[in-house]
Amino acid sequence: MKYTTKAAEKSTVKITLKFDGEEWKNAQQKAYMQTRARFAINGFRKGKAPKNVIESVYGKGVFFEDALNILFSENYGTVLGKIEDKYTVVGEPDVSIEKLDDEGVTMIAVAPVKPEVKISSYKGMKIKEYAYNVKDEEVDAEVSRVLDRNARKVAVDNRPAQNGDIVNIDFVGMVDGVKFDGGEAEGFDLTLGSGQFIPGFEDQVVGMNIGETKDVNVTFPENYQAENLKGKPAVFAVKLNGIQAKELPELTDEFIKEATGSETVADYKAKVTERLQKQADNRAKDATENSILEAIAANTEAEIPQAMIEREIDSLLQKFEYQLMYQGLKLQDYLDFLKVTMADFRKNYEDQAKKNVLNQLVISQLIKEENIEATEEEVNAKVAQQAASVGKETEEYKKGMDPRQFDYIRSDIIITKLFDMLKANNEMVKE
C-alpha cells in the first residue's frame, strides 16, 4: 500500500490510498473467507461453495464492498499514525473510490483535521481582571438557611396566607378554557415567595383563607419550556386547604453548635466567610481567564471543522443530560415535554460549542508557542500536596493513583503556568 497526503480546504486533509493488484486480490479472498457462509448455492453445503462459483451466480463484484472495507479498516489507522506529527484528524472521513480494476484500487479519504491557528496578538493588551468580595448579607443568608432548615412547621388557622407560609392547595389550570398537561394537582405543598410557580401565581395566593377558592390569572413567560404555553394567558382554579408557618429557632451559640458543630455564631460566620471567599476567588479566576481568552480569541483566525463543533456539542449535551438525571429526568422525556427534536435542541448549543473549541485551540497553540511544560518535580510536588490533604504518605498515595490523574495534574500545572504568563504580559485592569 502506498499513500499520499495533501492539505485540503476547510481544515481537511486528503489522504490517497493506493493498493496494487495483488493486495486487491488478497482483500477479495479475505472477504470471501469472512462472508461465504451467507451464500446458498445449489450442489454445495452452505459456506462451502468456491469463490469463483459464488461470483458466477451473484456477479464478479459480489465481494467488492467487503474487500474495500477490509483494505480501508486495515490500513487507514496505520496511515493516521504515520502522519500524526503533521495532521491531527478530529472526525470520521468521507471515503470515495477513484479507481477500481484488476490492477488495483485507489481510495480517497477526506478527513477533518485540527485547524491551523493564527494568533495575531496575546501580549501587551488591556484585559479585565475580576475580583469578588463576600458581602455581609451573603453570610447572613447562609445563617438564615441554617435557621430555616431547623425550623418547626406550625399549623395556622387564624389568619390569611402570607409570604413564607407553606400552603396546601388544589389547583386546575386552563388555557383558552382547556386543561393542559401538568396544570392540575391536589394536596400540593407550596412555599409562598419561593418562586416555584409562574410569576404572579404565588402573589395571588397570598391573602387567601383556609377553605377559600379563587381564580388566579397569570401569563406564561415567553421563554417558558413548553412551546404550546409560551406567552399564553392562563386561569388556575385554586382551593386553599391549609396553612403552615415556619417557626425559626433562636440564633444562639448553643443552637449553632448543635446545628453546625461550630463553637459560636461568630466562629460559624467566620467559616462561612472563608468558604464563600474561596468560591468567590475561584469564580473571579474563571471570569478572568475567560476574559483573557475572549481578548485573544478576538485576534485569532482558525477555520474550525464542523466535526470539532459537533463533538463539543456532544460534550455539552452529556453534561446537561447528567444534570437532568440528578433530577430524575431523562433527556428524551425533557425534549418530548418541550416538543422539540434533538436536532433543533442541539442548535441551542452551537454558539457555545464554537466558542469553547476556539478557546481550546487558543490554549493549545499558546502552550506550543511558549513551550510550556510541567516538570516531574512540579508533578511530584502536586501529588505530595494532594497526599497530605488526605493524610497519606506520598508513595502510598501514588500507588492508588490512576495514570489519568497524573495527566490531569500535568495539564493543570501547564494551564496555570500559561495564565500566569498571560497575566504577567498583559495589562490587567481590575473589575
Total strands: the figure is: 13
Mean residue pLDDT: 94
Order of helices and strands: EEHHHEEEEHEEEHEEHHEHHHHHHHE
CATH architecture descriptor of the largest domain: Orthogonal Bundle
Any idea what the CATH superfamily of the largest domain is called?
Answer: Trigger factor, C-terminal domain
CATH class wording of the largest domain:
Mainly Alpha
Largest sheet: 5 strands, antiparallel
Report how far apart the termini are.
60 Å
- Beta content: 15-25%
Shape category: extended
Topology:
Elements: E1 2-8, E2 12-20, H1 21-35, H2 51-58, H3 64-83, E3 94-101, E4 104-112, E5 118-119, E6 126-129, H4 136-149, E7 152-156, E8 166-175, E9 178-191, H5 201-205, E10 213-219, E11 233-247, H6 253-260, H7 265-297, E12 300-301, H8 306-326, H9 331-338, H10 342-347, H11 350-370, H12 376-389, H13 394-399, H14 403-424, E13 427-430
Parallel strand pairs: 6-13
Antiparallel strand pairs: 1-2, 2-4, 3-4, 5-12, 7-11, 8-9, 8-11, 10-11
